[in-house]
């Protein structure tokens, strides 16, 4: 009877340690996301010098899909935690799954991003080995003009040669300044709404633009996390 009673009490003794393990895994998930965010910022510097050789659609596409992959990983972890809880399984298996999926999302994004930059690295290796000569850098893409998201003209941005930019996010007028660095990255300085209209059901994503990149006559607008939030094409 004593042995049987001891076996019955064992799960109660293990419960605090399992709970602590589960909490540790839940805390580890945002820590991984924070580290991955800074890693991606440093990786972005590798785009400098692509000079048309990189497959930036692949690289930027991976970055754009990354938040969705993270969201799906967290949802899967929460669902797994609930299922394990209902079945009386250890509580730490759910967050552990989240840790694994978030890590895989960050690693896969980094790998795809580097695959997009691989042509540039191959070109640099050929130049370093004397197999090819460095060519003149192509001219930077010129943003001056009107760029729009659709044929109806909204959202849109108008870049002027004097460094000013105006536009429309589909609800409010936008205004600010722009500069372009040596890599072609366009910095949208203080792109802010100039009106205070309230438009229900309108996605005002363009007002969150902080920078932009032009590839193949298409402008990718980046948000606060330095990843694309939308795109604009030259006005027709």
Q: Which properties best describe this structure?
A:
236 residues, alpha+beta, Lipocalin, 3 helices, 8 strands, 47% helix, 19% strand, disordered N terminus
Task: Give a concise summary.
This protein is α+β, with helices and mostly antiparallel strands and 236 residues long.
Q: What do these coordinates show?
A:
With 236 residues, the chain is an alpha+beta fold. The chain has two domains: 10-128, no CATH class; 145-234, Lipocalin (Beta Barrel), CATH 2.40.128. It has helices spanning 2-44, 56-86, 93-128, and strands at 145-148, 156-159, 164-168, 173-180, 186-193, 211-215, 218-222, 228-234. An eight-stranded antiparallel barrel has the order 1-2-3-4-5-6-7-8. A hairpin with a 4-residue loop joins strand 3 and strand 4. Helix 1 packs parallel to helix 3 and helix 2 (56-86) runs antiparallel to helix 3 (93-128). It is flat, with a radius of gyration of 24 Å. Mean pLDDT is 82; it is low at 1-10.
